[in-house]
Each structure stands twice: as C-alpha cells, then as structure tokens.
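User: I'll paste a sequence; please echo it back and then give the predicted structure.

Assistant: Echoing your sequence first, then the prediction.
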Amino acid sequence: MDGNRRAVLASVVGATTLVTGAPAPSAKPRQAPQPAFDGEIRFDEPIRSAAASDFGHLLHEMPEGVLLPGSDSDLLEVVRWARARGVKLAARGQGHSVFGRSMARNGIVVDMTRLRAVRDIRSDQVVVDAGAQWSEVLAATLPRGLTPPVLTDYLGLSVGGTLIVGGVGSRTCRFGVQTDNVISMDVVTGAGERVTCSASSNAALFDAMRAGLGQVGIVARATLKLMPAPQQVRRFLLFYPDLNAMVADGRLLAKDDRFDSVQGAILAAPTGGWMFRLEAVKEFTGTPPDDDALLGGLSDDPAGRQSSTLTFFDYLNRLAALEAALRANGQWMFPHPWLTTFLGDSEVESVVAGELTRLTPPDLGPFGQVTLSAFHRHLVTSPMLRLPSGELCFVFNLIRIPATNSVTEAARLVEANRVAYDRIRAKGGMLYPVSALPMSRDDWRRHFGSAFARLNDAKRGFDPDGILTPGYGIF
C-alpha cells in the first residue's frame, strides 16, 4: 500500500478517537472579549461532540464551542470574534456532509438550524434564512402554487448547505442547479462584513459564494426564484437490458425534453449482475399526459414498464420512505462513504462500465445504488461548479449505504473512492465536492482549474485571515 492510501486509512480510522477526547493541540487563540450574542455559545462536551460528526460518520473533529445564534446579527459578531482570536469557523446546517466539511477542529461551529424562517413569498421569488430546510420552503410555497425550479432529491437539506456546493436535483436537466436559481444572497464575509450580493451587485462575491464551498462567507439569507408548481406527476420506471441501451435513451430524453426529469439508476440484480433503470417524470395539472406519446421510440423493455401518478409533493418527498427505513434499522447512523462526480458524454459508457466491473453489491449495500443522469452543460452557469467539457454531462454517483458499522470497512470504501476518483479524473471527469475522499491542496487547485485564481482572489479579499470552512482543506 502506498503512502497516499495509508494516509486515507489513517484519516478515517484514526479520526474516530477525536470525538471523546479533548481538542487536539493547536496554536493558542488570541485573547478577545466574547460578544454579547442574541443567542448563546456553548462549550459543553455533548453539544461539541454533536458538532464533531456529520452524516458521513467518517471524520470527527472536535470544536472549541458551538454558537446557537439568536439572530443573523450573531453571525456577524461570531465572525469578527473568531477573526480577532485567530480561530477557524464553520457554518453547519443539517450536518449532511459526508467527510467533515462542516467541522472546525478547535474552532467555532455555527448551528444554522436556529435561523430557518421562510419570509416574503412573492409570485416569482421567496426570501429564506439559510438554516431552513428545503421541505420547509416547500411547505410555505406549495400552498400558493409555487416551487423553486430545482430541489435536491432529499428535502431535509438546508438552503445554505446546498447553495455552497451547487445543489443537484431531478430538475437539473431542465433548470440547472440550485445555485443557478438564486437571485441574491445576504452574506457575512470572513472579513466581518455583511454584504448583499447578486449578479448585478457585488458580483465577485456572488460568484465565489455559489458552489464556492463556503470559503469566503456564510450565507445568512437567500432570495430564491419561484415558478408555478404542477399539481401532479406521471412517473415511469423504464428497465433496460444493458448500460449502453440505458445511456442511449438517457441522451435521447435529455435532448428532446419530453419529460421534466430523467434520472438513471444501476442496482444490484437479485440474481446477480446489474439492473439498469431510468425514472422519467412528466409534470401536469389537470389532464394527464399521453403515455404512448411520452414513451414512443424508447429502447426499454415494454413488458417491464411501471407507471404511477403522484402529487407533486409526494414525488419530491420520495426519499422519505427510505429515510424512515434506514432510521428504523439503524443504518442512518452508519458511515456513508459516497462518491459523487460528473462525466463527459464521450467517456460515460467506458468509465461506468469499468467501475461496474470493480463494484460488488456489498460495496453499495442493500439500499445503495449507482446513479447516472444526463443534463445539458449550458444550463449550469455557476462558475465554481466544475463540469467536464462538452454539451452533455452525466451525474455519476456511488451511493454507498453499507450494511455494517465497521470502521475498517468504511475506510476501505473511502480508499476505493479515492482510487475511483483518480480514474474518473484521468478521463476528464469532475468531482461534485460532497464526496467522501481526502483531497490535497494540489487536488483542489487541479479541481478548480481556471476558476481557482478567481476563488483565490475572493478568499484573499473576503476572508483575508483564512478562518472560514476549514474542512475542505483548500487553502
């Protein structure tokens, strides 16, 4: 085993000891008087331990304290205090990252779930606190017949948490990612200033915040686009004999826009091997669509087709049943060593076929799957979200949900992610940074490519002391 792989195993296996211990040694923070927060800052071990873990359950970094903000003014105060003391600071929404990205070892974690109001709903936009979950946004907008254009497949994520990474969902094939559908943001920068930014005002900050991994500021509030919501959806599950047939129809449906969302899944077959499936969804209000017209010219097995009609919300909330099952059997608290990437159209069959030859069902777990979905590259305009070249891109994810709580097995899968990422990168693929694998500073520079200079300039200008979101290890 080479040095890099040994480092991967050590980072995962060794990190588990940090939860119960005292903060690891670091440079002594400078003295600065603690502000009078509207909320409170806690230093007790239980709340610090909770902030030392995340959904991935792979890394554990104990903070010095956790801020429970009482208002968004507390965000400004805590940033200025952390900067004066020379300690790191990380904002945490639902803690749904999988590799310690919302942690701050020996620093301060801000519990953004305390700031979750949904405000000022209009016909084309809504103002939302960053700690609100997307389910809460929908609960406020759907009764008015409105929805954000793009929602993540799991609605329990926070608005701020997805805006700093991009936010991919079933409607990405029509409307890009969530960061492409933000009108403006109120941001507390690492320099201790509150700034409202948009495409036309403070654009450099706006571009660095959208999918910029929280490196230059904390999202306090966001103004999001809204559009009319359909009442129902017609949902089809289409099954294919092999990968090539599924990919061919994925390309076709991405180009002709007959469906409102198309997502591919590769699942372990009960008899061995893999099953290939597209989920195609048509939204409607009133008269249902013509099934024959929607399915004409496709290459799936007609005898295996499954169709259903759901309310729009029930479709958006489709992962709630899986969450309930995983919580019931304990797997929700197991490690989640996920790998999420983007592939270029010209390499998709060869890369995916190669990865499938290396995967076994235990590598994914009984509830896991491979996802593979096409979208048009031009729909994504957020400059920090890195995509392969070419007009058509594919989301390619290994959604690993292990059936064991074994730390050693989790470390093996993190190592496998790193090796798979190296192969994908060599074929022009890109990382979606909500992934469980270690990344060096050089890796991040290579990842951002031509956009790194812009992010670096923004970091120097908006977070000059480098205190924000240390979990990525970019700077």
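The CA atoms of residues 391 and 420 lie 24 Å apart. The chain has a mean pLDDT of 94.
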